[in-house]
Write a structure and sequence with these properties.
With 172 residues, the protein is an all-alpha fold. Helices cover 78% and strands 0% of the residues.
Length: 172
C-alpha cells in the first residue's frame, strides 16, 4: 500500500480488510500525524452517521403521491375527451352531409361498377329517412352549425397548443 486513500480508511473502519492490511495501515498511521487525523475524522463521521436518527415518511405518503399523479392523468383525459368529442361530431356531420348530397342526386345516372350501385341503393334507403327539401334556410342552418363546430374545435386546439407550449417553457 503505497498511498492511503479515503476508501481504504473507510474499509478499515468497516472491518473489510484482512489482518496483514490492517497491520500495515496501523504502521503507516503511527508514522504520520496527518493520517492519524484523517483516521480520527473518518471514525468520528462514522460514529455520527451510525447515531443519526432516521426519520421515516408519514404513513400514507405513497397513497398521496399516487392520488396526485392519477388526478393529473384524469384531468388530461378529460381535456382530450372533450377535444375528441368535438372532432368526432364534426366528422360525423361532414360524413352525413356528404352522404346526403351523394345520395340525393338523381338516380338516373348510370354507375359503372355494379357493387357501387348496390351500396348506393343501400345507403340511399338509409338516407331517404333524412331526406327533406333543401332550401336556403336549411343550408344556412347547417353551414352555421358546421362553422360553430369548427370554431369551437379550433379554439380548443389553440388552447391545448398554448398550454403545451407554456408547459414546455416551464420545463426548459
Amino acid at each position: 500500500m503505497k498511498e492511503l486513500t479515503n476508501e481504504i480508511l473507510n474499509k478499515l473502519i468497516d472491518n473489510e480488510l484482512n489482518n496483514s492490511e490492517i497491520d500495515e495501515l496501523y504502521h503507516l498511521i503511527k508514522q504520520n500525524n496527518e493520517l492519524q487525523g484523517r483516521l480520527k475524522a473518518h471514525q468520528m463521521v462514522d460514529s455520527v452517521l451510525k447515531n443519526l436518527k432516521i426519520e421515516s415518511a408519514p404513513e400514507n405518503t405513497t397513497e398521496l403521491i399516487m392520488a396526485k399523479i392519477s388526478a393529473n392523468i384524469l384531468v388530461k383525459e378529460r381535456k382530450n375527451g372533450l377535444f375528441k368529442f368535438f372532432m368526432s361530431l364534426f366528422g360525423i356531420i361532414i360524413i352525413l352531409i356528404l352522404g346526403f348530397i351523394m345520395f340525393s342526386e338523381p338516380t338516373g345516372q348510370e354507375i359503372i361498377i355494379p357493387q357501387l350501385s348496390s351500396v348506393k341503393n343501400y345507403f340511399g334507403k338509409i338516407f331517404s329517412i333524412f331526406s327533406f327539401p333543401i332550401n336556403t334556410k336549411v343550408i344556412s342552418i347547417i353551414s352555421s352549425a358546421v362553422t360553430v363546430i369548427v370554431l369551437v374545435s379550433g379554439y380548443f386546439i389553440f388552447e391545448q397548443h398554448r398550454a403545451f407550449k407554456n408547459k414546455l417553457n416551464s420545463i426548459l
